[in-house]
Write a structure and sequence with these properties.
This protein is mainly beta. It has four helices and 19 strands.
Length: 320
Amino acid sequence: MRDIVSCFSENSVNVYHSSCSSYSKNACISPNLAPSTQNSVSNVYKIVLSTLKQILITVTWCKSHSNQGLSISFGNHSNDPSASVSAPPFRLNTNSRFFRKKKGSKLIELCDESKVEVFWDLSNAKYDSGPEPVEGFYVVVMVNSEVGLVIGDNTNEEAFFKKIKTSTTHIAKVSLLSRREHCSGNTLYITKAQFCDTGTLHDVMIRCSVENEGGLINSSSTSTLPVLSVCIDKKTVIRVKRLQWNFRGNQTIFVDGLLVDLLWDVHDWFFNTVSSSGYAVFMFRTRSGLDSRLWLEEKTAHKDKDRVEFSLLIYACKSS
């Protein structure tokens, strides 16, 4: 029996090269709508210390009508469940009338006796519409006096490491494993993604619109049907017609020399029940290993065998 993805996908595999314009010469044009609002953004980083110890650090930025804040949690990347390093997450509410500590530090002791220090300065942070600051801030996580994670743009000063009171020269190897975004509003979603450490930052747009059989957008015809479009750098990489019947599916695109699997599940947009969340889910995931490229010499492929997979998940709640 075929799985549900292959049953409902119009085209099981579609390959798109970001530098090739033959797939679609027309840019993906945004409708006259403001993009949906990001409610929270979570980034999961793998930290490899100089001792080869690996730790997962999840950094979550959230925003609501009543608060805006930051949460950092720690986990173990080992397959051994007994080697737990978890601890209560570090939380910071930067928009509370009772507690607004936008600059400071905190010492945290993990379950494996590792000592973690978190330093932050959000006093001059600037934001767009989302919960994640875009400039004027820094967040630094140190593990056992080793610089583990540095986020922000205020880290290039010579005096920066003096601010965090350390003379260490050890900086851990950091890889971004996944990014998760929760959005709400209409059916237009805009974000940015870097699919590999050496790749460029791409503009990603997901849009659900209606067309009639003749292809007219936003037509008042009674035969209008929903269409899903995904664009990277303003070029359409996939188009899914009759979305109410193809509500789950997957296609493959080729970006920055990598195969990226794109999966969607918009079932709850059309068949929502009281018990369901009403969220659509979109996931971009890179492939690693020898199957990560369409063609490669064996020697080049061997160099890329340890490439870290990256995934971007978008949870989209349609409010109307």
